[in-house]
Every structure is written in C-alpha cells, then in structure tokens.
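Inputs:
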Amino acid sequence: MFDAPDTQKGDASAQYVDSVGKYFVVYVCILLLAGLQVVVAYEPITLMSTVTRMMLIAIAEAGLALVFFMHLWAEQRGFLLSVVLFVGFIIFTMQDSWTDSFRIKFGVPDGRPKTEVMK
Amino acid sequence: MSQSESVTNGHGAVIPTEPMFSVSAKKKAIWLFIIADGATFTGCLLVYGFLRNSAQTWPTPFQTSTIANAMLMTFILVTSSLFMLLGVRAAKANNKSAALRWTLITVLAGVLFAILHIREWHAMIGEGVTLFQNPWNTPLFGATFFSVTGLHLLHVLGGVVALLWVGIGYNGGRFRADDLEIAGIYWHFVDVVWMFVVPLVYLLNVSR
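Outputs:
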C-alpha cells in the first residue's frame, strides 16, 4: 500500500527509474506555468484575483517540482504524507495575521473605512 | 547494511532494522531542513503580504525590462534544476565524469543567476531604491524587496558552494551518489522558493 510505483526494491533508499523524457516534459510544464503567471500579471483584474490566480499557478509549479524533481512521489507514501501534513500545519498556523493587516488599512477587523469609524 | 539502521540487544548482537519509511537519515535530515527553511521563507513572504496589504499606497514600479530579467532568471534556475536531475541520474548510474559535468553546469547556471540578480539590484539602487528609501515614499518597499530577494540569493550562493563541494567530492570518491542526490534536493528547493518569490515580489508590482 505504501510502496511507490517507480522505485526499485532491495535498498533502503528510493532508487528512481525516471526517464530523461519525463524530466523534460515536467521542465517544459513548469516553464509554461511561469509564462502563464506573466500573462495573469498583465490582466486587468483586481489585486485579489491576481494574487489568487498566481498563487494557484505557483502551487502547481511547486507541486510538479516537489513530486518529480525532488522525487517526493518516489518515496514511501507514509513519508510523503508526513511531509505534506507537517508543511500544511505550518502554513495554516501562519495565517492568523491577516485581520490585523486589514485593521491597519481600514481601522477595524471587519474592514469598515477609517473615516466612517472616526465619525 | 549501510542504508539500514541497527540496534543491539543485551548480548551485543546487532539486529538490523528498517529505517522509518525506508528513508535514510541523511535524506530525512535534508527534508527536515527544507521544511524549516521553507517555513522561514513562508514567514518572510507572509510579512511582505501583510505589509503590502496594510499599506495605504504601494508602488508598482517594475517595467517590462525588469519582468523580462526576472523571467530570464526563472528560466535559468529551472533549467539548472533539470541539469541537476541529469547529474544525479548519472551518479546513480555510476558515471562519475558525467555527474561532475552536469553538476558543474548547474553551478555555472547558479552563478549566472546570481550575476543577473546583482545586476538588477545595482540598477535599482542607481534609481534610488535602497533598504530605507525610494522615490515613491514607501520605505518598506525597498526593505521587503531586498530582504526577500536577498535571502533567496544567499540560499542560491550557498547551494552553489554545496554543489561544488559535493560534486568534486563525489568525483574524487569522498562522497556517494546519495550525497549528490541530497545536494540536488536542496537545489530544487531553492528553485521552488523562487517560484513563489517571482509572482509575489515581481509580478504583483508590474507597472501598467
């Protein structure tokens, strides 16, 4: 259940059997995604939409690099799950400051403009 | 038995045990380092996002030439990751000369990236953008830009030194293919971080 499909057995560490063609395809995909980010940057949309789209593309790029370049997919699934859960936990716990940034800009956590609050 | 861990029982006999998830201690260590370093960069980028979001005004000064330079740097770094993969592949196949060749090409790409980065910094400083001031009256713009990109550049330079050390050491028989693989994993991590730095620091500040 936890064995990675593209490893050879008989050794404690993963032995990758990737082809050069596979690496090249992933490489081209990453570059295309980077180009897509530039297209998104010049689109006439709101800042939040730009940030969301760019972050989704960046996560896709990073996912490709993590899975294929860093061979995380070739490791045992238990290890992969440990890394993903741990990283997800760290990122989740770092997200508690956004209400402060909106409060600094607008004066209150729910985002009402400062001028309204001061009246 | 070099890859597996072992424990001794009370009579001194060695009992081989499988390492957790069949991952060697060295690989576990580099992944733990990457997670910790990734948390550092995540914190830096979140702080940048916080400051940008909470500022009343934020400059968007990057012209097409700056964006083109950033994309060239992205191309060089991603290509260097591909070269590193080919180097590790050669090392796993016991081809020391090919592994060293690909590793040195990766190092050269890293150096080229650093040169382009420093050249860009030089241009920005020439325009009056420094850590504490800039022409747009938002001092934190320079502080965040140079901090985030500077931290990444430091990691690139560290990676260049590490790859040289391990690549030459592997060719000389001091290190094994697994050691080159671990150095390669660090280099790919540096690439992954850049994939987040470019959109947040460069592309969000495009001049329209």
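Remarks. Confidence is low (pLDDT under 50) at residues 1-5 of chain B. Helices of chain B lie at 25-54, 64-92, 96-126, 139-171, 177-202.
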